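Lecture notes, structural biology module. Today: joint structure prediction for complexes of two components.
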Amino acid sequence: MSILGSLDWNDIFIVPFFTDPSLSTGIAAGAGGIVVLGALAVMVLLTVKGWWKPLWSNWITTLDHKKIGVIYIVLALIMLIRGVLEAVVMRAQQVSPAPGFLSVEHHAELFSTHGTIMIFFVAMPFLTGVINVVMPLQIGARDMEFPFMNAVSLWLSIGGAALVMASLVVGHFETGGWTAYPPYTGIKLSPNEGVDYWIWSLGLTSVGSTLSGINFLVTIYKQRAPGMKLFDMSIFAWATLCTAILMIFAMMPLTVASLMLALDRQAGFHFFTATQGGNMMNFANMFWLFGHPEVYILILPAFGVFSEVIPTFSGKKIYGYTSLVWATIAIAVLSFTVWVHHFFTMGQTAHLNAIFGIATMTIGVPTGVKVFNWMLTMWRGKLRFSTAMLFSTGFIFTFVIGGITGVMLANPTIDFATHNSLFLVAHFHNMLIPGLLFGMFAAVNYWFPLCFGFRLDEKWGRRSFWLWMIGFYGAFMPLYAIGLMGAPRRMAFFTEPAYFPWLVIAMLGALCVLAGLTAQIIQVWVSVKNRESLMVPAGDPWDGRGIEWSLGCPVPEYDFSTIPAMTSREPWVDAKEAGKRVMDPTEFVDIHLPKPTGMPFLVGLVATLFAFAMIFQMWLIAAVGFVAMWVLVLIRSYDTDWEETVTAEELREGYEAHKRVVESTPQIRLDDEFTTKNRGLIMETQV
Amino acid sequence: MTPLGPVAAGERAHLISFFLWMLPISLPILIGTPWIAMRYRRQGGKGKYDPTWSHSVAAEVVIWGGATLTFLIVGWLTWGHVMGEDPYKATGKEPMHVKVIGSEWKWMFIYPGKVAAVNRLVLPENTPVEFDITATGAMQSFWIPRLAGQIYAMPGMGTKMNLTTSEDPSQTYGFNSQFNGAAFPLNKFEVDVVSQEQFDAFLQEPKHPFAQLEKAFKKTATWSGPELFEPPEKGYWGKVMMNPDMLSDGGAAILPDHAPEQKKIDDAIREELHVSQNQHQGDAQ
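The predicted structure, tokenised, for the full assembly:
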């Protein structure tokens, strides 16, 4: 076998278009071309602007949790653009005269990459990024417990995403959906490299996520500011704690199931081959043993975000803190008890179905409680509808509809009639778009100043909200309707004339979502351009409540000049009520921060090389990549000179500088919050 | 959603009842959220401002109690629904038996000892039917929406589904809802519910030898040949279930590597769509 394994000329994206020209192969070649040209354009831009060096020294080698978080979010946004574009292409396919302009296989590749990307390379990096930025700041920590491992997780996730992007250029992706059930994804029915792309891109990112989970959990356990009890933590930190536990336990079944599938495919094992004593049902079982807790990995951090945004913009303490915490814990525990509801139709006994159906409904209780808690937080508040608050309110309203259909689907007899239908597709988009994306968008709009020192443009933010909201209803309410008429999911085209008007509405909705995404890109562009007038150097631009707002914006690399004293659940609110505009320092001491290092990037690079080699069965290169990965980790482990010191004096200077900025910042009214008068530290009680 | 049989009717009734049971808990949110947003808005809102109000025992009791009560009700209903409509439980005395084998992209129906059919399911009216379901090749999901919900058809596995046919003759269709490759949109079959006399006549229709079916079934991706065949020997379905490879080489599922099948499937799709332009496809359920 050649050193290049199974790779051949036909795998290059442009070749099939010349051997078999059609609109379908043309679109595939175009998509590959966008990836290649996009990568080239970025390289040219970096070279022309001379940004290679700052990119390397400020970002690629960074171990700062905030910057790592930002890179995660940038990754998520890039992949989100691809995911939404794929959705628009699929919607266009279904409204064009059957059989449409895509082959069934090409359409299948699209829904498979759409699902895989949205879950693993949009949702996961997005929430991991937000947690990275916010959680250490909320518990009074200076960084993650394991900053190096944090960067390794990041570069493994980017490696996974890069593989999915590479599948546009080299070879194919799989066609069996994001769940990739065998035997369809076995070597016999899916002989090309598509499923291997799925296995190894997920392999990289699921290891990254497991490591992130460990990192978050240990950080919360070990790095909280002295005096901060678990029940003093913000709800977002609680959400992170529960998410981290889920990440640690839930990612492993996926890693194992996908590696078993890899052994089936490439090493002649028969874990999932019925004729050789294997059982495909076990794949579904293990996949959803991961997949259901995963749903709550996705949604809990967003719940945490809403629990921060809503009190701030209601100008009010959060309602029912204890209730919210216990509801979060309950959801985390229950999320491990319901996975069978993903395959009620697999022919198990009625008792088993009934028990798992009812278990599923129990999750509705704490979730419902949370929704009412948010509403009661707004009750008797003074609501300011910033972009973040609009996304949060839009979430409450829209999420309920998904909740209703969720309880309906949890009844196995209803599931028999709606499983594998567009009703189901509408349901989970109804949970994930408001329940995850809206939360993450709110988080970005809310916490953006912490990372960059300026606010995001509100006008374009609000436009993006309305476009997303209307787009969501347009795109998915029709799917509920035709799902109930019996339209199955994953169809390349429908011949049923009754579906057509609904599909047109869904198409318009998808375009509206695309416009919302465009508005967000414009929002970032406009904000960067006007950053001088949007600067909030004094910090706390929204009269916030968490201790992260006691810091200046952008937050310095060491986060806190002194670790804050935790006198209550909301020490920053206490300080502001006492008329202070800067938290009193505790004790200035020398601290150690990890030095920037290119090692995590290199680890990610060779791991990606290893995975790519595994996909195309280049065994020699794979072996080299695998060994190199561990050698790099070992070299780093023996490196003793990895910290640099920030002296107490520097910290004191930082503190004094922040104090001077605060003192020179004029006080303004909350009504001017979204104007250029806002230079940070608005305080309701002062005016 | 216009069901033809009691099982599908039951599913629809449950769907509606669950929707209604969710209203007491969801309407307060759907109405309350915009109302609170209006009433407590900073500029122009009329609501009283109370920045430290953050706990109320009464509200906690109502929220947790209401959610739990709703859960208990829908949980109780679920238990009843699931036990009452277990697809493994016969819907009447001595149901008629039909053995089902799903493959890429066609369905074989065996009426034991009587006839074997491809992509055509004929059932007598107002009769309980029990399907034994298996598959060759990829996993499929056997679904006749207007008669009953779906159950997976899996190679090496046997599953069951029970239903009662409509009271009067009717025509509908069934399909596979689990994506299984290039001709997935064509993976469907006609369902004719007919009178007992018509059904007896159907069993008497001329048939082709089963050996011909077995040979063609293995080779063909999409079926366009004859529909009715002699029944196979007793226990044939069980043998296929235990050894799905005997009816499938599975190779037709992936196209880039199977150019000839790709062409056949393209033709089949075109033919199917041509037919659909001239002939009404049957109303939405």
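Point to remember: The mean pLDDT of chain A is 94.
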